[in-house]
Amino acid sequence: MSVLERYWGYSTFRPMQERIVASLLGGRDACVVMPTGGGKSLCYQLPAAVSEGRTVIVVSPLIALMQDQVVQLTAMGIPAAFLNSSLESRKQPEIMAKAAHGGYRLLYLSPERLARPDTFAWLERVPISLFAIDEAHCISEWGHEFRPDYRQLKRLRQHFPERPLAAFTASATRRVRHDIIEQLGLRAPDKYIASFHRANLNYLVMECAGETEQTERLLAALRAHPSGNIIVYAPTIKRVEQTVAELAAEGVVAVPYNAKLPAEERRRNQERWMSDDVRVLVGTVAFGLGINKAAVRAVIHLALPKSVEQFYQEAGRAGRDGLPADCLLLWQRRDSGLHGHFIAQIQDAGEKERAWKRYSEVQDFVARPRCRHRQVCLHFGETPKWQECQGCDVCSGLPAWLKTDNGFAPTRSARLGFATAANPQGAVPDEQLKDYLREWRRKTAADQGVPAFVVMHDTTLDELCRARPTTLAEVRAVAGIGEKKLATYGRGLLDAMRRYQEGARAAERRVSMSLPERDTLRCLREGRSLAEIAALRARTVGTIAETVAALIERGETEVPDGCVDVEKRRAIEEQCARLGTERLRPLKDALPEEISFDEIRVVVASVRRAKESGGRRAV
Ligand code: ADP
Ligand code: ZN
Fold first, then answer.
1. Which atom of ligand 1 lies at the shortest distance from residue 38's CA?
2. An example of a Gene Ontology BP annotation on this entry (predicted)?
């Protein structure tokens, strides 16, 4: 059995991993740029696993990540330890002694730890096989996360001239790459630069007139993603708190994350989000480092990030599972003013200049109607062969849930702004056709007893919508359809396309159900009340109410019996007729005190559902 299978249980390497491992085992220096989630850690862990009696030293600034990796490695039977400020001081000598005897295959050090005067003398005694520098872009002033303590790493090459050095980063422009190589003193390193193109991400950039509009759009986005986890990035701690409150007023439960919260609460909030208890997290940029959650369906920015790298890194936390995800950047003209204000206060002339440069790049990124994916690639020194993508507002237009006509009440019909100007009519994906094909896929999958993505990936459905094939040969030409798929589904697909041409439409939109939703639905069917479900699932009633409302809105269930009493329900419905169901706050204000947000939320969901399905039937 291969080492990869034996320890990791993986059958194949990810792109580039095998070659990187070979470089490191061959004792060569290396510079690796690979997007987050690409599988960098395995590149230095595997060489460690096969080198008995020798130790890979990993330098990382992320304490939580070190701890996670050490726990995982230990569980896999690979001896590993870390030394950093979080460790009790009495444990340190023990670890250091064991390390000097080659007791670890991997040893993780923080840059501060490395900088301590006694560290190098001790490291001389450790049987080091190589140094792996994680987050290597932190060594460069040109990077967006420069850390002065990373400059200490220059000394590694001087002290250990014969040990190989490997630098790893998820985000480095050409300039930063050169800087990393120079500062670390890498010798003719093998370079591995992965593509920065993340085709499953949909980059959506939109200028907003003010915070009110941003909030409206944020709500529209949350409604458009009724299941799955979401990260909202706010520019300041105040804005984090304000956003959480605004969402609460609309019946959306969200947890805050910022540096000012007590560590305990921060951890708890993160944990609730990680475990899918609460699906929306509103945080400052402090959130996300070392977070390894694959199924994030959207990342929403409420302000212009400081740099394109920062945007790429934060937005890139969406869709790590490879499934489609939205990266929505809601910016205001004012953001630029704020950036300018902060940059003006920077004392160091060099740093000031670099900050200006980053800022003008990110301004260019949002303001110019050029393919976002392409701009990102170009920013990182990669020149794509294509000019247009299938997943950005410039190439494909804004999705239905973001489009507006008057004011900012989202509607289905209107289209918007410069995106439209740069967007030829034909390139707009037909949402109705997509819904129809989704329904076809669901039925086909159910007939065959396989998951939907086995029938066809979402990206293939998108392609089909664009290509609108009418012959088998045209179906075959669509990306994602090989011979086998053509033989199995080709005919059925053409039939579906023909029925659509003749006027057939999807019966309803469906979204797959998350685990907490299924769990809650089961409880509802057992006739339990919201409070009972909350107690059973150790969640707040608010969280349960939000889940139930989402289920109702999608037509998965009715308003549960005993959840809202008849009188209250009638009162809420009356106010809905009068005030509409766009916002909950006005409804709450108009209703008697004793009617709770949770009750309103649930009834509003059923009213919205009734309108939706009524509207559909009328079409
Ligand atoms: P990075 O450090 O580049 O952000 P990680 O090393 O954390 O990425 O890897 C991301 C995820 O991919 C992890 O869950 C890891 O277990 C998984 N992974 C890495 N290599 C492989 C592989 N060859 N096959 C399957 N999964 C892999
Ligand atoms: Zn594009």
1. 3
2. DNA repair
Q: What integer pLDDT is reported at residue 618 of this predicted model?
A: 34
Residue nearest to atom 26 of ligand 1 (CA): 10
Query: Which atom of ligand 1 has the smallest separation from the CA of 36?
Result: 4
What pLDDT does residue 144 have? 80
pLDDT value at residue 422 = 28
- Establish whether domains 201-412 and 431-501 are of one fold: no
pTM: 0.64
The reported pLDDT for the residue numbered 64 is 76
Q: d(Cα 591, Cα 575) in Å, to the nearest integer?
A: 8
40 within ligand 1 shell (Cβ under 6 A): yes
Residues of the chain under the 70 pLDDT cut: 1, 289-290, 404-429, 450-451, 453, 483, 508-512, 612-619
Please name the fold of domain 201-412.
Rossmann fold (3.40.50)
Q: Any idea what DSSP says for residue 477?
A: T
Q: Which atom of ligand 1 is nearest to the CA of 34?
A: 3
pLDDT of residue 290: 63
DSSP string, 394-457: HHH---GGG-BSSTT-B-SS---HHHHHTS-GGGS--HHHHHHHHHHHHHHHHHHTS-HHHH--
Ligand 1 centroid to 41 CA: how many Å?
Answer: 7
Can you give the residue ranges of every domain in the chain? 3-193, 201-412, 431-501, 515-612
Q: Around ion ligand 2, which residues have CB less than 5 A away?
A: 371, 373, 389, 392, 395
